[in-house]
């Protein structure tokens, strides 16, 4: 067995700063979005995925993969959103086991009303603090890490 490759001091500082930033930024975005629109960050994530499709509908399994959520978490969350009239579910005529999540007019209205303030919050908390070069660097880092994560993606559970 090999010894662990511990982070050096610089890496550890960067890692801990990243974790703190991620935690605090996510919490602040969630609170502001909730206060401004009544949507949770999870609601917003689902609605964004749906609005990214021209017909406002996506297969449930495809949505779970895009959000990196377990099927049970997604199912419970979609039930709550459906009760609020933001989405509906439709059976898939080609595949009896599959279903679609469909954006409702109320869901579209909710995200259209929430998005401008949410974008302003993202600008205020993140991008207004960075230079153009730092934004480019952030993008490069994110893409490199995402590529690595996709290379090592474990198979998705379907149960």
Automatic annotation (TrEMBL):
PROSITE patterns for this protein: HTH_MARR_2 (PS50995)
Pfam families (alphabetical): MarR_2 (PF12802)
HTH marR-type domain residues: 1-147
Coiled coil: none
Highest taxon of source: Bacteria
Record InterPro entries: HTH_MarR-typ, MarR/SlyA-like, WH-like_DNA-bd_sf, WH_DNA-bd_sf
Protein name, UniProt field: MarR family transcriptional regulator
Species this protein is from: Actinomadura alba
């Amino acid at each position: 067995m090999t010894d662990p490759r511990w982070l050096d001091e610089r890496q550890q500082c960067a890692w801990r700063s990243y974790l703190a930033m991620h935690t605090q930024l996510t919490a602040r975005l969630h609170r502001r979005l909730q206060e401004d629109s009544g949507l949770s960050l999870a609601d917003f994530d689902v609605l964004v995925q749906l609005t990214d499709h021209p017909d406002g509908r996506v297969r449930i399994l495809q949505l779970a993969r895009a959000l990196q959520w377990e099927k049970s978490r997604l199912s419970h969350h979609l039930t709550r959103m459906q009760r609020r009239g933001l989405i509906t579910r439709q059976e898939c005529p080609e595949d009896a086991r599959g279903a679609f999540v469909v954006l409702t007019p109320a869901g579209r209205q909710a995200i259209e009303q929430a998005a401008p303030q949410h974008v302003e919050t993202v600008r205020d908390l993140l991008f207004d603090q960075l230079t153009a070069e730092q934004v480019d660097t952030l993008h490069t880092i994110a893409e490199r890490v995402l590529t690595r994560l996709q290379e090592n993606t474990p198979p998705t559970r379907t149960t």
